[in-house]
């Protein structure tokens, strides 16, 4: 199973090795060599993170649009949940699920889209973990640790001999062997990584979620995770190489900046961020256009009497029924 997993990640490791090597070549030309070579490799990991996140921008945009749709359909979702509240029989549960799926289909909403960036980014994370974790064995020429793209044994030895703040990129807290520089650097990176994750999630929940969405069970679970994630990072982070911690911290900072732009310019409907954006646009004399989800009729929209209800199929009329009948003259 492990061999299959390693084989699956090899193309990603190969690509990451070339990207890191390319960034290092650029930083080397800029004068980051010799004693500063460790910083060149550390910045190469930062450059690798930027490349990965740029490639994920289209997916992030889809996630934002789907997230906004999820916010807009919450009133309809609550109506469905209220309709079947207390009904636990299989028929009612099946009917509720059918109405929810129909709502997703009509509005083009995917409830799992918010998880896609994390799931797609995970292979890049694990591939980098393997790439950095094997540097020492590769530099020592241990059998089974062959070259990965441009990262040959000679390059691996160069990476292993370079340091930042007295620590190698392949070092971790659990393998520090009493090296105080490694321990301090890993603890600082873990604290910064946990703080940026907490800030990102806290900003998302407090500024970009309507009050109604904060009262549902899903939001309460997010609040619990908000405080559990730093503990998880503190426990797991001590096992990660310093290079992986740099990658993780960089992607968190990228996420914070990306989220700040989205919350400011594309806030969730009904949130505090939307209210502030509306005030900014009004001060500039611009009109505020409400976001409309296809397939969802707004509550304040005027619906004709003969229009079908949301989610209700309109029955076709026969030719005879469609014609207007002429009233008979009274005798």
Automatic annotation (TrEMBL):
Major location category of this protein: membrane
Domain of life, per lineage: Bacteria
Protein's membrane topology: Multi-pass membrane protein
Keywords attached to this entry: Cell membrane, Chaperone, Membrane, Protein transport, Transmembrane, Transmembrane helix, Transport
Listed GO MF terms: membrane insertase activity
Residues covered by region (Disordered): 271-331
Domain Membrane insertase YidC/Oxa/ALB C-terminal residues, every copy: 41-263
Ranges annotated as spanning the membrane: 39-61, 182-204, 224-249
Function comment: Required for the insertion and/or proper folding and/or complex formation of integral membrane proteins into the membrane. Involved in integration of membrane proteins that insert both dependently and independently of the Sec translocase complex, as well as at least some lipoproteins. Aids folding of multispanning membrane proteins.
Protein name according to UniProt: Membrane protein insertase YidC
Organism: Humibacillus xanthopallidus
